[in-house]
Structures are given as C-alpha cells and as structure tokens.
Amino acid sequence: MTTRAELTEKIIAHKTFTGVKWTDVAKEVGQSKEWVTAALVGQLSMTREQVEKAGNALGLKFSDEEMALLMMVPYRGSIPTQVPADPLIYRLYEVVAVYGTTMKALIEEEFGDGIMSAIDFTMDISRTEDPKGDRVKVILDGKFLPYKMY
C-alpha cells in the first residue's frame, strides 16, 4: 500500500528528474500552477480527469491506487513539525509571526470581525525583477467570511 507522502515523493522525484515544470502540468490540467502544485503535493483533491491529465503532463502512469490517493480529500496542513524546519516555509511562518497581528488588525478594520477564507481562495506566485535582486511576489486572495451572531 502506497502512502500519500510516498506518492508525493514519487511525483516530485519524477518531476525533478524529467525537468517538467509545474506551469506545464497546470496548462495540461487546466488550473493554476498554484492549485495544481498544491494538489500534487497532497493538499487538495483532484478529479479523475485532472489526475489523468497531470499524469500525462508529468509522463507518469498512475496506478488505480495512486489515482485514488490523488482524488481523496486530504488531511490538510500536513507539515510534519509544528514549526517547519524547511527555510523557505519557515520564512513564510516568520512573515505571519511578525506581521500576522498587523494583517489581522487591518483586515478587521476594513471588513469587521471575521476571517479570510482559504476555501474560497486564490493564490498567485510570480517573480519580479529588481536591480537589488529578484523579488518573490505572493498574492493571497480569499473571500471575507464574517463571524455570525446567534
């Protein structure tokens, strides 16, 4: 029995070996590179058709078991440690640790008491050239969900 973590490692290893880009897989699947990457690393579920298209783009033939794993609703937030050791992921945590209360205060001032949805949500990651060194631009776009009184 293959685990979801093992399947993720297989996908990433194959992608690395073949040089296929997430953007190429996303074009074949017909979704954003951010959504397809999240699905293939185990954070979102795909339809059978999306799995087949992703497999074609990657040059992988998924077994029925692997297809089922990619179609299952995942356990989200599956970083193996409470504070991630990976430097890039840790820096994203650092952004929230330093600026989270600021983001919260500004969102609540603009919208009121509520949250930004990670369900009705889009993300865009791009590169911006800068003479001092290229910049990573991350746009998080989530629907505002107010807390209800009852």
TrEMBL record:
<feature type="active site">
    <location>
        <position position="91"/>
    </location>
</feature>
<comment type="similarity">
    <text>Belongs to the cyanase family.</text>
</comment>
<keyword id="KW-0456">Lyase</keyword>
<dbReference type="GO" id="GO:0008824">
    <property type="term" value="F:cyanate hydratase activity"/>
</dbReference>
<dbReference type="Pfam" id="PF02560">
    <property type="entry name" value="Cyanate_lyase"/>
</dbReference>
<feature type="domain" description="Cyanate lyase C-terminal">
    <location>
        <begin position="78"/>
        <end position="150"/>
    </location>
</feature>
<dbReference type="InterPro" id="IPR048564">
    <property type="entry name" value="CYNS_N"/>
</dbReference>
<dbReference type="InterPro" id="IPR003712">
    <property type="entry name" value="Cyanate_lyase_C"/>
</dbReference>
<dbReference type="InterPro" id="IPR036581">
    <property type="entry name" value="Cyanate_lyase_C_sf"/>
</dbReference>
<dbReference type="InterPro" id="IPR010982">
    <property type="entry name" value="Lambda_DNA-bd_dom_sf"/>
</dbReference>
<dbReference type="GO" id="GO:0003677">
    <property type="term" value="F:DNA binding"/>
</dbReference>
<dbReference type="InterPro" id="IPR008076">
    <property type="entry name" value="Cyanase"/>
</dbReference>
<feature type="active site">
    <location>
        <position position="94"/>
    </location>
</feature>
<comment type="function">
    <text>Catalyzes the reaction of cyanate with bicarbonate to produce ammonia and carbon dioxide.</text>
</comment>
<feature type="active site">
    <location>
        <position position="117"/>
    </location>
</feature>
<protein>
    <recommendedName>
        <fullName>Cyanate hydratase</fullName>
        <ecNumber>4.2.1.104</ecNumber>
    </recommendedName>
</protein>
<dbReference type="Pfam" id="PF21291">
    <property type="entry name" value="CYNS_N"/>
</dbReference>
